[in-house]
Amino acid sequence: MTTIELLAQTGFPAPFAGVTLAHYLFVSAAMFVLGIIGFISRRNLIIMFLCTELMFQAAGIALVAFGRYHLNFTGQTFVIFVLTVAAAEAAMALALVVLLFRRKESLDAQVWKDLRG
Amino acid sequence: MDTILNPFLLYGLLAVIAIGVGIALPRRGFSPQILGGLVAAAGGGLLVAFLTLKAGKDFPNIYFYIFSAVALGAALRVITHPRPVYAALYFILTIIATAGLFLILSAEFMAFALIIVYAGAILITYLFVIMLATQAPREEDIDVLTEYDSEAREPLAATAVGFLLMAVLTTLLFKGVATLPPAPVNRTEALLAEMPRKVERVLENHGLLKEGETASVVLGADGLIEAVRIVGANGEGRALSRGEWPAELPVKNVEGLGFNLLRDHPGTIEIAGVILLMAMLGAVVLSRKQVQLDEDAKLKQARTLAGPLSEAEAEGANG
């Protein structure tokens, strides 16, 4: 019986193989690393913050996959809090971006490099 | 400890993906983004194919491959597209594909919450800010990209660091996780034992429970439901075995999630509320426009606010 049929019939998740978990964790790791590469290499402030959201997504995939593997809901519950933190971060970050843009009329992260001290 | 994939194969393929991503990052002049994307896709595809060969009949279902390919492809486009608006739109594609992955993982509530909260709210805020914080282009150079969008900062170093991290992560993952034992108890099913009212309501709706009878769930040693016990008013009981109870008896995703959230993490909800409140206040304070007033203007404003009475007082004090 395939997973989908089992899900449809009983409403319960079927047991989950470890190798299948590794598939999801690989996707999660790849997405996280793409987020990090984007955050380091892009110079546009808004795209840098989009990349942090990409990393939140990756963490969410890993949480839900582990929750599914252990057949409980805690992983999904924590994705709710990841969403909360992501929303709070987006509000703050975008307010900051607007503020910084008003100061220097540019979204380039390089124009703030004198903050390095 | 059993290794899922040969480490040298793994590192070789990761290097191929890294080269692809490095080529795809925007740079001045000749920037073969499609070529980079294809190289990265080939490397990633081979890696997942080897993983699937190893998984044998345990491989995840076919939609996993479609959704993860869309998610990772769109993620690559988010970090390589020179125009911020398109990057944000590709991010929405990533979110929708991730929601698809969540559906396969039977996390239905989170899948739709993700689309509503992320694609509906957060990304629209991003688009607003992109529109707000961009100078309106002049008529003749509407296709010209700004310098900071068309050129990545240190693309090679960033890719190298990123894929070093990826190599460490996947090494741990392909060595350790496969030996993790599956959960001993099916907690999804065990949860039903704590919801007697739900069991009774479902049975009532299906005409299986009469007036004055109570129902409870009997759990077996493996954490699965053995039987549903129904006890009448006069003490006599009967049991429904698997297959006899209605299909809607099992805990649904939203019920289980709500139960878990409110029973196990009530304090965390409060903290989440405080975080959201602080973010709201912070955003209001940060983005408020500061108006510079000199001393005379401030004094004048204070008088207007204080009203006619204090104005008379002020005159009296002067005279």
Protein architecture, described:
The complex is a heterodimer of chains A (117) and B (319). Chain A has 117 residues and is mainly alpha-helical. Chain A has a single domain, classed as Helix Hairpins. Chain A is built from 4 helices and no strands. Chain A is elongated, with a radius of gyration of 19 Å. Chain A starts with a helix and ends in a 13-residue tail after the last helix. Chain B has 319 residues and is mainly alpha-helical. Chain B folds into 3 domains: 7-137 and 144-179, Four Helix Bundle (Hemerythrin (Met), subunit A) (Up-down Bundle); 187-251, no CATH class; 254-318, no CATH class. Chain B has helices spanning 7-24, 33-55, 62-80, 84-104, 108-132, 147-150, 155-176, 187-190, 196-205, 253-264, 266-287, 295-306, 308-318; strands spanning 214-219, 225-231, 237-241. In chain B, strands 1-2-3 form a 3-stranded antiparallel sheet, with helices on one face. Classes of the chains: A mainly alpha (117), B mainly alpha (319). Chains A and B meet through helix 1, helix 2, helix 3 and helix 4 of A and helix 2, helix 3, helix 4, helix 5 and helix 6 of B.
Mean pLDDT of chain A: 82
Major sheet of chain B: order of its strands? Answer: 1-2-3
What is the percentage of strand-forming residues of chain A? under 5%
Which CATH class of chain A is shown? Mainly Alpha
Report the CATH C-level class of the largest domain in chain B.
Mainly Alpha
Q: Quote the CATH topology of chain A.
A: Helix Hairpins
- The name of the CATH superfamily of the largest domain in chain B reads NADH-ubiquinone/plastoquinone oxidoreductase chain 6, subunit NuoJ
Report the total helices of chain A: 4
Described by the principal axes of the CA atoms, the overall outline of chain B is flat
Number of strands of chain B: 3
What composes the largest sheet of chain B? 3 strands, antiparallel
Number of helices of chain B: 13
Round the Cα radius of gyration of chain B to an integer and report it: 30 Å
